[in-house]
Design brief:
The termini are far apart. The protein has 325 residues and is mostly helical. Helix content is 75%, strand content 0%.
């Protein structure tokens, strides 16, 4: 989930400028900036993509899963923050303020919704439905930030709604359930709400916010969890997921917009909705039903076309501005 929020925040990443400003000439010398951006972003997506598989492999109730996953993610993000801001990490936490606390709450609810969804419906359904977050963000931004919604967004929202309906009606997928699909939709809403908070208050430091939300989430679900029921194997999966996979993958994807446009990072993140179910299919045989394939194709192609269209429109606007300037 952190990766998705980073994607939507990545258009304004000034808070990391002190750490990454010198990266372009230090990382992978000899490669073009664009190639570096593609490689870094793709690596981040690849590292995070087994998240759904590891969640499926952990054999505990979902409250216990949420507790340990959130707690380890909190620690992993604290480590990343300490590396990015040596001797200043605590100041990053103190600077969150009330907007940061609201975003932390939104992200905590999104995490709880995500785990509830992925443990009650298929990984394919969960990740594809979560990919609708940018459209939820457009609607929330229209209501709370008075941001206009261009016609192509309304068309995309309609097509995505059709795709979600097709997925939720997939009776062939035994791992699919309406309950889980609804929580995936709720997760997309809370992620979009968090994105809206960051757009409204761009000074929020995202890594400390994710770290704090992990701790808050763990405390919220602790009364419902059974932390000491986790086996050694499950604890290994949780450690890999929370301390290594999610923080490192998120950090890499956060670096992507330093080299390529944020919209292209968003386009590449759609790969997670393809790779995630693929790992589960290979390892556990959880094959999506035909309607999930059809609905997923509608959603992913709509989002991809919308992103490419937005990139081309942005380029035309820049060229026109240069021509008139």
């Amino acid at each position: 989930m952190g990766a998705r929020l980073i994607l939507y925040y990545s258009g304004n990443s000034d808070s990391l400028r002190p750490c990454f400003s010198n990266c372009p000439h230090k990382l992978m010398p000899g490669l073009s900036q664009y190639t570096k951006g593609i490689f870094i972003t793709a690596l981040g997506v690849f590292i995070i993509s087994p998240d759904g598989l590891l969640t499926r492999l952990i054999l505990v109730d979902h409250w216990t899963l949420i507790f340990w996953r959130a707690l380890f993610l909190s620690f992993g993000m604290w480590l990343i923050t300490s590396l990015l801001y040596p001797n200043r990490s605590w100041q990053q936490y103190k600077s969150l303020g009330l907007p940061g606390l609201v975003m932390i709450l939104f992200y905590s609810m999104g995490t709880i919704s995500f785990i509830t969804a992925i443990t009650h419906t298929s990984v394919a359904n969960t990740l594809i439905i979560l990919s609708t977050t940018p459209l939820f963000a457009a609607l929330i931004g229209r209501v709370f930030l008075s941001e206009p919604i261009v016609p192509r967004i309304w068309v995309a929202i309609l097509l995505v709604a059709i795709g979600v309906y097709v997925i939720s009606s997939d009776g062939e997928n035994q791992n699919s359930s309406m309950f889980g699909d609804i929580f995936a939709m709720i997760g997309a809403f809370f992620l979009a709400a968090g994105f809206t908070m960051v757009r409204r208050f761009p000074g929020i430091s995202v890594f400390p916010a994710i770290s704090t939300s992990g701790l808050m989430t763990a405390l919220i679900v602790l009364p419902l969890a059974q932390p000491f029921s986790v086996t050694q194997a499950d604890m290994g999966y949780l450690l890999i997921m929370g301390i290594y996979m999610l923080p490192i993958g998120t950090a890499l994807m956060y670096m992507g917009p330093k080299y390529i446009p944020a919209s292209e990072v968003g386009l590449m993140l759609l790969l997670e909705s393809v790779l995630g179910p693929t790992w589960v299919w290979i390892a556990l045989g959880e094959q999506p039903g035909s309607r999930t394939f059809i609905g997923g194709a509608i959603i992913l192609s709509t989002l991809a076309i919308n992103t490419i269209w937005a990139m081309q429109s942005s380029k035309r606007i820049r060229r026109a501005a240069l021509a008139t300037g």
